[in-house]
Prior knowledge:
alpha+beta, 9 helices, globular, Jelly Rolls, 15 strands, 5-stranded mixed sheet, 313 residues
Amino acid sequence: MKLFSNGVELDLSADALGDLEDSSELLNDAAALRTKMAAAGHLFFRGLIEEEIIQAARDEILYKFAIIGEIDPRFPINDAIYGNGDALQHINLRAFTRSVRDGMAYCRVVRNETLLNLHERLLGGKVRPFDFRWPRFARPGEGCGVHCDGPYLTRGTDRIYSSWIPLGDVAREEGALMILERGPKHHRLLQNYLGKDADRDGLQWLGDPRELRQRFGTRWLTTNFKSGDVLCFAMDTVHAALDNHSATGRCRLSSDSRYQLASEPLDERWNGSDPPAHGRDKVFFPGLGSWNNKDFQDEWKTVDEQGRLILQR
């Protein structure tokens, strides 16, 4: 089997690609969790969230995508086989994406008690999730570029953790997340990048995942994710997604959510009753789709005053 990220074929040798290690045995040991997070920059947990909670969120989101033609009606909606999304350029995309982010079943995943308790052990106090959430619907051929979360999220505090949650099983070849293993070069190579602000400095992806791994001298780590798994990581952790090369045309559904101490300052872009994010003229809607838009590799799509997609052919 071949694996790709950002269109680049990855080296699958043992010194280039490894497996994520399950940290479930540390779940109730706050000191051990913090020690491992400080050393590795990530923690992976098998089956942390009950499967029925995940499935309810998956159903809720996929039905919404089915309404706008993103799911092929010839197959069960839960199979998430890609349709064509013909309706997208005619709908209020701002309203649609907010309905996905704010769905009740999906919010029960983001605010799951076990998940909150994990972040409270890591941060040492009561936490609050960011009000903005990032559900991702990755069509065949799509992925996510190499980056760290820090430059995008830390105007309030840098004591934040991200949790990536597959909403259903996600095999490696279907777009699983991958983490760049930490090594002695990690902080030196990232020092300038982590001091930037994504909005102010117009950041792009960090680059070719194969060349980047060689420069850092470590491995990419990933796994075949199962429903209920959680991958938690720090703001300076380098990560990306594998490209979705599903043999059946299955779309990958996952979630990114962020957590910080409730007592610390908030990043105004991502918190409040109606977070402004990267601007009122943009919505979070990753992927290329089938709209022949040169800018659609970007995760944020430009919309007009009625929330309709602006095509830039």
